[in-house]
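Table S2 (text version). Query chain:
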Amino acid sequence: MKTSIKQNSAFTLIEMIGVLAIIGILAAVVAPRVIESIRDAKVTSAVASVSAAKTAAIGYYQRYDNFPLDEDLVTVLDYKSDPVNPVAYTPTVGDLDFGDVLVRQSQLLEQEKAPIGRTDTDAVHAIGCAAVGGNLIGGTTYTGTTATFRFKSSGSATRIVYYFMPNLTLQEASALAAKVNGPFTADAVSDLSFVEASIVGNGIATVGGLEGANAWFAPGAATGEFNAYLYVSHQ
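Corresponding structure-token output:
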């Protein structure tokens, strides 16, 4: 009587190497696209944050017929934390800004935060209001001239409201520039081309074919990072 021996099939070493090679190729192809998709989604969300700030700012202006300058803010009562007995709000980083007014009066439901950029000990996401010729959050001056720094939608404004996003990576800044300032001409061939098309102090660069910009950039805290200034509204 013969006894049958059952053999278990298994992967050979060559087959294992082949499978791993295929997985490596797929990862190399898919991973960058996944990362880019995630970044694009964050940039889209950041633009939505600017739109929400615009709605809140317009609502404030319709009520008070004025945008308060950051430099004039002395006290902001925190109705958001305590609607009945509000106390003065003190930001953890930096001085009071117009965004604190919007948030603490509950006209802007979200905090002054966007999904792109990096906060540090000196700079956080903020919504500011400054007069033409005044200093913005991050130390930049808004000149109101196309040669150095002027929002495309501000016209002949005397005050501008802007969204400040600190320390964006080059890729984040490039994607934001493409979404807000575009379309660009074909001579903008790199991430840096999109960002340098609207560098604060240099005006609108010839590369990219822009006639104006609602997103401007300045050097961030670390090498390769950029602070972003996005138009919200004006007076």
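Notes on Table S2: The first strand starts at residue 126 and ends at 131. The two ends are 100 Å apart (CA to CA).
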